[in-house]
Amino acid sequence: MDAKHIRDNTVRHVATAAKYTVVSVVSFGIIYPLLMTLIAQTIFPRQASGSIVYESGNPVGSAIVGQLWTKPQYFHGRPSAAGKGYDPTSTGGTNLGPTSKKLIDATRAAIAQLKKDNPDASGPIPMDLVTSSASGIDPDISPQAADYQASRIAKARNIPVAQVLALIAGHEHGRAFGVLGEPRVNVLELNLALDGKP
Amino acid sequence: MISQRRLERRPKARSLLDAKILAVAALESFRKLDPRWQFRNPVMFVCEVGALVTLAFFVRDLRTGGPAGFDFAISMWLWFTVVFANFAEAVAEGRGKAQADFLRRTKTETKGRRVVDGREEVVSATLLRTGDVVRVVAGELIPVDGEVTRGAASVDESAITGESAPVIREAGGDRSAVTGGTRVLSDEILIVVTSNPGETFLDRMIALVEGAKRQKTPNEIALSILLAGLTIIFVIAVATLSPYSIYAGTAQSVTVLIALLVCLIPTTIGGLLSAIGIAGMDRVLQRNVLAMSGRSVEAAGDVDTLLLDKTGTITLGNRHATEIVVAPGVERSAAVRAGYLSSLPDETPEGRSIVALAETEGAAGKADGSTFVPFSAYTRMSGVDLAGGESIRKGAPDSIRAWVRERGGNDSGILAQEVESIARAGGTPLLLAQDATILAVIHLKDILKPAMRERFDRMRKMGIHTIMITGDNPLTASTIARESGVDDFLAEATPQTKMALIKREQQAGRLVAMTGDGTNDAPALAQADVGVAMNSGTQAAKEAANMVDLDSDPTKLIEIVEIGKQLLMTRGALTTFSIANDVAKYFAILPAMFVTAYPAMQALNIMHLTTPQSAILSAVIFNALIIVALIPLALRGVAYRPLGANAVLRINVLVYGIGGLLIPFIGIKLIDMLLAALHLA
Amino acid sequence: MTIVGWLQTAVFLGIVLLLTKPLGAYMAKVFEGERTLLSPVLAPIERATYRVCGIHPGKEMSAVAYLLATLAFSLVGFGYLFVLLQTQKWLPLNPQHFDNFSADNAFNIAASFMANTNWQFYSGENSMSYLSQMAGLAWHNFVSAGAGIAIAIAVIRGVARSGFATLGNFWVDITRAVLYVLLPICVVGGLFLCWQGVPQNFHPYQNVVSLEGFAQTITGGPMASQEVIKELGTNGGGFVNANSASPNENPTPFSNLFELVLIFLIGAGLTYTYGRYVKDQRQGWALFAAMAILFVAGFSVAYAAEAAGNPLVHHLGVAGPNMEGKECRFGVPASALFATVTTDTSCGAVNAMHDSFLPLGGLVPLADMQLGEIAFGGVGTGLYGMILFVVLTVFIAGLMVGRTPEYLGKKIERREVQLAMLGALVLPVLALIPVALSVLVPAGTATLSNGGPHGFSELLYGFSSTTENNGSAFAGLGGNLYFNILMGCVMILGRFTFLIPAMLLAGSLAAKVRVPATAGTFTTHSPIFIGLLLGTIIIVGALTFFPADALGPIVEHLLMLQGKVF
């Protein structure tokens, strides 16, 4: 192909490309997501709207989004690097590497805080409670991490530890189909249960 | 008298590493350090630039008190690397040069008798031009290439071919070409000059063996691109390593970076590549085949279909008469005598064998006054016209039948069954007739060359389809094909059908090789991807072919194919080896580079090399010495095994891939131990 | 490491294996224009598209024309997104009233999505309007993936055809790719993800007050429809910054498995399509096997490293695997798996923060990209990247058996080697040189969030990822004007400098006449060939990057074992 031929061809291709862009933006960029929303809102309205959890008619959170918990009578989640903590509009992890001094210092501080918060806890320190999650809004903790906090919660609520442990066991989500992911408990779900709300 | 100098025989083979060649090559390898020469080979050029730069740093360090000893050692070994590569090439070239020198001596000062208008004049060979006619008599050197136009002579071609047995050259037919520099032993011939001075066969041969016009072959070019690409990749990898190491607080000296670079670029194959190519051509010449280009040798390795002339390749050239079957109602003795008489003047092996057979049945005597009618491709028969007026003919059955009919004889059905059964048995039926009467059929038996079946089996394993070309009828051809083990055959071949076969194969994407000698083979030879002409053949055939077999041995084609394959295999094997070597070199050099800043890097020093300096130096020394160590392999070629492609691949990956991975670990370790023992680093 | 952890990967690979044949066969049908189950619905749309855009579906293109069409479309798409991002403030569907992007950031994002990279120097949840997400980014996800598949099909035709001057029609191939392949899977898959919990709405963000009385803003948007194409098209650009680690994008282990399968699906399917086209399924399965081996090897290393955990953290008195930057619902095995899968392809979605992986765990995604993302690979790009490696391997192997090398009957000669080498040069040139530049200029190291070798790894990872159009990051590397421009350029060059030699190679192969195979031809589906192919990939890929990697993850690993921190 000579230069002129290529030039003419290019002009023609660009014209086709422009038309194709318009057509495909309308069909895949507008119609497709709108249609999907319509269907999703019809058949999965709760999930499609963000799995919002209501308590006495008030939205208290999302079932899939983690929250900041500080009071002793509630289960606490993992350290979060999302904004000032559990901010869904600023998700992310610490992005600290394994040999980062900051990471080691932060982990050391988290361990100290954890031990301070749970003076009566027994057993090994759960790894997930002293490391930041990837999203910063991890809604879950490991069952071990929940168990670790049981005595504190029992004390704060003045109920037997066994009751808390039983609650944890009752709300444990196992691996999907026995193989996928890891066993975990949803912190919001657990805390709602603690408050005696389904 | 014209030039009676005794002819030397061209030495065919030389030992791989002839002392004289080595001495010349050693000198030559320093002359090749000229950067203009190195520039054609990017890999070695980079190596030479590295040697130069490290040398400059050595000089600088001498003044500034830097690590001059280390710089010097690295620089020297980089120079050695280039010199070793040059040496490999020079040795390969040296073998060709020795041949060329010999041939040049043959060329000296011949004179010839030019015949102009019936008068003769003695002129220097350099004055002879195409179209001139020259007379050469027994004992004289043939001054120039030509075609015999009259007479026949035995010629000593040993100066060219290295074979001492004289050959017959005669006017007409397919043995008419003569080569300048050969000697007429008996008789005399008239020759038409076919090439001008400077363009003769000898000139071309000198240029070819010398490698003066050596051009890179297609695969060699492709491989060079691959190697150049790898070189660029490693230049980038090493050049960027300099800022990286500064950032990591462990800045590296230029000498060390260059050492790493040269170890990573494929110097082994880069240094040996041209030697492999030259040696491949040389191996062809050792087999007494003159390849007009490296391309054709390479193409030989790719051949899918091999066309082989039956006669001379699959069967011995001479068929033997084994039986005379007499027609009903014909007296046996008369028939035998007719066969005897008709064959007496026939000098062909077939003719002589008929005479011999007839003599066992008591035939004797001579036929005075008879005239011999020689065989021709048109009549497809030969015979004698006796003094008494009778004519005897023997030849192809249908030709004889036609001849008999012409004379008013009856041919219908006579001996038809016998002819058929001879053909079916793979023999050649020769009908014998006197005037209007068919007398007998002579059974000429083809004699298969020994061990052909194994060769064809080998070809088949290599994926080469063999086709036998014969003028025989399909019945005979199929029998011989079956007995010899050839894959397929083309019966009743004519130049046209042969050409059509070649084109058909090529259209199906196959590469075709063939041999030929006659003028009518020329178009097919030109059409075939690999055409090998017999040196005994006509000038036209030799011009059309891309190789000439000086021994005129049609089976040579099989060897040429093997050489072509071996050439490519050697390149592939050494490329694999060269690249696989990099792994060990990394493990030698990288920890050495960074261990000062990061003592933890010692963990990567899996060879436990003594010091960072000794590690780097050992890798560089190994890199240089491996070239020398592989020169014999490059020149000889990797071991060739006639196996299927998958088996060959498995073996070569194992030997050169896995071997290439492991050997440098051992080599570098040993060199390091030696350096440490000698307190050199 | 646990058996369950391995089992999860086995289940995943098993599902991919099961889907390869049906999807591959379906794609072969689609691209040869045969009728399929979906034709009654989609064929009218396809014809209408051609009519409106003035496309003549019967007219095939040469390699050069095909390339020009690809480039023209990419150019227009780039310009469109560049403008959209700088005008979103004034456009509808922006309930959070996000501002326009700066020009350099818009350039980076437009380059990133046009090149199927989806490198994210922005956080979607706090800067990108719904319109920009769906009509800008998600649209690009569809068409850049479609273009990738189209090119792969053209390259496959190049290998399969004998004596042809053309490779197909780009507009037809891309239309069929998005309409018949991507769209149906997206509709079903998007709804599946929504069922698992991924939002799909146009609400403004919702404010909630937690049981403890903290205010929280729950984000929304048309996420499910975008999430599915992001994985299927191996684009990887998350609706939100945390990408598939965010429970909004990837709420359950089941959705995680689903997304993983989506990432490998088309790359794996194309190996079967390839077998169909060249009329020898074994050739396709050989590529599949080579890819699967690379994948399993990578996963093993990453899983082992992450499961062992960080010794520096262990010293603090807490045992266990490395959970920094990982989600509880996935844990270490699913995170190591996702990291391997996303970088074996050009996806770049993440469900854990690669920056916080252990050195050897992080080396795996880095090396995966440095090898060219060919283990199933990006939609299309993986296959044609693999074919370039096959060409180089065939060349070396072919020489070793003593024949001019041929692949599937096509002789590999000077031009093919030249083009394959050009393709092989792209990665070192584009990934290594900018890293060298970056360590030399202040702007290049100003935004690193880690010191020591890990900081260097962030740079190396960043440029490997942008060159290879992956988009995953050692996300500690922050965006600035310097990186916006340099990485934008690297992404564009990375896509096209690789695509051009691949297309020209296809054109050159298509024109060749097929040579019939004989016993002298080595088979290109034997274990020995697969081994050699892997050897070539590792030699060309790993040896190029070994020095750089040695100064990054490798030395960091050794220093970590000695207890060093930075």
* pLDDT averaged residue by residue of chain A: 94
Q: Count helical runs of chain B.
A: 24
Q: Give the neighbour order of strands across the main sheet of chain B.
A: 10-22-21-20-11-18-19
Strand content of chain B: 15-25%
Low-confidence stretches of chain B: 1-5
Question: How much helix is in the residues of chain B?
Answer: 40-55%
Walk across the major sheet of chain A and give the strand order.
1-2
Number of strands of chain A: 4
Tell me the strand percentage band of chain A: 5-15%
Biggest sheet descriptor of chain A = 2 strands, antiparallel
| Distance N to C terminus of chain B | 72 Å
Hey, which two chains have the biggest interface? A-C, 105 and 129 residues
Query: Radius of gyration of chain A, rounded?
Result: 25 Å
Structural class of chain A: mainly alpha
**How many structurally independent domains of chain A?**
2
The counted number of beta strands of chain B is 22
Tell me about the biggest sheet of chain B? 7 strands, mixed
Between the first and last Cα atoms of chain A, what is the distance in angstroms? 73 Å
Instruction: Label the overall shape of chain B.
Output: elongated
